[in-house]
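Q: What residues go here?
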C-alpha cells in the first residue's frame, strides 16, 4: 500500500481504506487492528484510529473493543433493503420536482447546466467501463455519477444518503461479481439515458429508467448469490447490480 504523508491523514486514510473495501481487497468479515493498518501505511496510530472510527460511522466497519475492527458483512436482505430505499427516495425526488432537479426554474440556471455537463461526462465514462466489464473503473465513475446527480436535487441530506446506500450496494455486490470472469453483460450502461431524461425534466421517464434498473439489479445479484443450479437468467436490458 502507498505511504501517506500529507497533513490530512485522517481523511486520506479513510478514503484509501474505503477504496480497499469497495474493491473487495478488504473482504467482508476481515479483521484488523489499528496497529496493523498503521504499519501498512507507515503512519502513527492516532489518524488510523480516527479513520477507522469514521468508516465505522459510515457503516463499512464494525468495531470490537477487544479485537479491533472488522469489515461489515452485508447480506442479500440488506441489499434488497438498499434497493428499496434508494428507489423510494429517487422516485420521490424526481416525482415532486419543486425543490428537486426536475424543477423548470432550476433547469435554466447556468450552474445547473454546468452540473449536468459534469454528470454527463461521468455518465460517458461509466458507460464505457460498464460495457468493457471494467469493475475498478466503473465503481469510481458510477459513484461520482450518482453523487453528482443527487447533488442536483439541492438537498445535501438526500445526496449523502443516496451516496452511502450506493457504496454499501457496491460493497455487497463486488465480491460476487469478481467471482465471475466476464461481467460485461451484467453491468448497467444506461447512465446517459437517465441524464437525458433528467435534462428533459421527464419525471415519468426518470422513474421508468430507475425502476427498471433497480429491478434488474435485484435479479442479477440474486442470480450471483444463488447456487449455480438455481440461478435465474438476468433479463434485458443489462443492469449494474450496485
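A:
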Amino acid at each position: 500500500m502507498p505511504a501517506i504523508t500529507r497533513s490530512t491523514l485522517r481523511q486520506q486514510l479513510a478514503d484509501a481504506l474505503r477504496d480497499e473495501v469497495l474493491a473487495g481487497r478488504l473482504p467482508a468479515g476481515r479483521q484488523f487492528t489499528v496497529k496493523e493498518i498503521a504499519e501498512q501505511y507507515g503512519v502513527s496510530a492516532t489518524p488510523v484510529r480516527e479513520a477507522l472510527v469514521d468508516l465505522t460511522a459510515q457503516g463499512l466497519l464494525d468495531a470490537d473493543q477487544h479485537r479491533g475492527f472488522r469489515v461489515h458483512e452485508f447480506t442479500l436482505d440488506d441489499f434488497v433493503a438498499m434497493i428499496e430505499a434508494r428507489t423510494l427516495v429517487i422516485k420521490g425526488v424526481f416525482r415532486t420536482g419543486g425543490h428537486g432537479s426536475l424543477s423548470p426554474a432550476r433547469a435554466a440556471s447556468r450552474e445547473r447546466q454546468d452540473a449536468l455537463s459534469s454528470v454527463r461526462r461521468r455518465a460517458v465514462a461509466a458507460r464505457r467501463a460498464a460495457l468493457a466489464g471494467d469493475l475498478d473503473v466503473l465503481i469510481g465513475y458510477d459513484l461520482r455519477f450518482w453523487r453528482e446527480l443527487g447533488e442536483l436535487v439541492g438537498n445535501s441530506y438526500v445526496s449523502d444518503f443516496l451516496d452511502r446506500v450506493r457504496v454499501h450496494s457496491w460493497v455487497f455486490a463486488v465480491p460476487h461479481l469478481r467471482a465471475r470472469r466476464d461481467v460485461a453483460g451484467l453491468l448497467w450502461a444506461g447512465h446517459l439515458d437517465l441524464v437525458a431524461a433528467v435534462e428533459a425534466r421527464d419525471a415519468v421517464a426518470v422513474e421508468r429508467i430507475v425502476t427498471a434498473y433497480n429491478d434488474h439489479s435485484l435479479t442479477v445479484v440474486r442470480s450471483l448469490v444463488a447456487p449455480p443450479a438455481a440461478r435465474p437468467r438476468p433479463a434485458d436490458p443489462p443492469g449494474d447490480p450496485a
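A: Context that may help when evaluating the design: Residues 24 and 175 are 6 Å apart (CA to CA). The longest helix spans residues 110-132.
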